[in-house]
């Protein structure tokens, strides 16, 4: 085997490899010799088929297999001899000229091909103990607990039939048909839909126009969909709804006592409040974790600056760009609407893509150097948790992940990342900083960007 380096530029390498015809023929002959004792051919006793006869019958197909194996072995040797860590699978370019290919297959010419390799950069890890981070913390207040318990009570408030017109706070059951410019639109109709007047659960202006409606009465309700409405084809459009009230109900009294807590499956009011407090604390801790993790990743990015494999960066960019442009198309927005140009946006997202790849490589290097691993039990728990999100389809979800290695890897990756983050937070200096709820849940400028 003869190997010639054609390119050594950044993280890209390219080699020309020549595999002698005699070497390939010798391997093919060895393979055919192995076959001699296994094949059964009319006219020959078992094990007595001449190799020359086998070569006439199977020579080309065996040589093709030998060539495939030899190319893989040659590429592996190049990688091992140079100590490369691959960013992508080697890109092999075999001869395309039919005459050349036939000569190689017939064993009359050496096989000459090129192989392109993209390698991972050597990463020198920074001093993680030098990292200092502010971690926002927020204690759960009685006011938060009271607000949540009140929301729970409102969701469980009893209603009783009422005579007369509907007032704010009443529950009105309605059927409606919506239209835009006189044309009905998809999703604009509903039957027996309960609406609590004043709950702001419908389009702005819808509930207010139902105040005073009586059972059996039909009204035309005119509203305008918000500009940020989730159904982008309706966003910002004026619509008219023909609404008929089929039932009017007044809210009953709701006592926040032990009996109310028991109706929700709790022992008493104290237990309900404790559960609410625990749930709010989990939300605060998750938000705090997200912010301190973002700051940790920023610190890691500052400590590690190196060129990333171009193909990995391009793949990451394409994923981001396709997502961004698809969302903009759905919302019928342009780059001008976003206050930028396509060229500027591409440059910004290219930086984001390279940052993501760089941080991914850094986290992987940290995990490898410190033997951070994800156990099979941890992955199994993740699959079980995922299956629970699809009631009635647990077995199908389980089978999907059991048979799909790529899907299983998508569960393993975030577990690994969180374990590396935990490892780094143990080494870094983390300062707990009390904040308000507004500060904790405020969107960081970096997140907006």
Structure description:
This protein has 449 residues and is α+β, with helices and mostly antiparallel strands. The protein folds into 3 domains: 2-118, Alpha-Beta Plaits (2-Layer Sandwich), CATH 3.30.70.1050; 158-253, Chitinase A, domain 3; 260-306 and 372-448, no CATH class. It has helices at 21-36, 51-82, 98-105, 142-155, 258-263, 269-303, 310-331, 342-369, 376-388, 394-403, 405-427, 437-441, 445-448; strands at 2-9, 12-19, 91-93, 111-118, 132-137, 159-161, 171-180, 183-196, 218-224, 238-251, 429-434. The strands form 3 sheets. Strands 6, 7, 8, 9 and 10 form a 5-stranded antiparallel β-sheet that branches. Strands 1-2-4-3 form a 4-stranded antiparallel β-sheet. A hairpin with a 2-residue loop joins strand 7 and strand 8.
Q: SSE layout and pairings?
A:
Blueprint: E1 2-9, E2 12-19, H1 21-36, H2 51-82, E3 91-93, H3 98-105, E4 111-118, E5 132-137, H4 142-155, E6 159-161, E7 171-180, E8 183-196, E9 218-224, E10 238-251, H5 258-263, H6 269-303, H7 310-331, H8 342-369, H9 376-388, H10 394-403, H11 405-427, E11 429-434, H12 437-441, H13 445-448
Parallel strand pairs: 5-11
Antiparallel strand pairs: 1-2, 2-4, 3-4, 6-10, 7-8, 7-10, 9-10
Attribute tags:
single chain; alpha+beta; Alpha-Beta Plaits; Chitinase A, domain 3; 3 domains; five-stranded antiparallel beta sheet; four-stranded antiparallel beta sheet
In short, what is this structure?
Pfam families: FKBP_C (PF00254), Trigger_C (PF05698), Trigger_N (PF05697). This protein has 449 residues and is an alpha+beta fold.
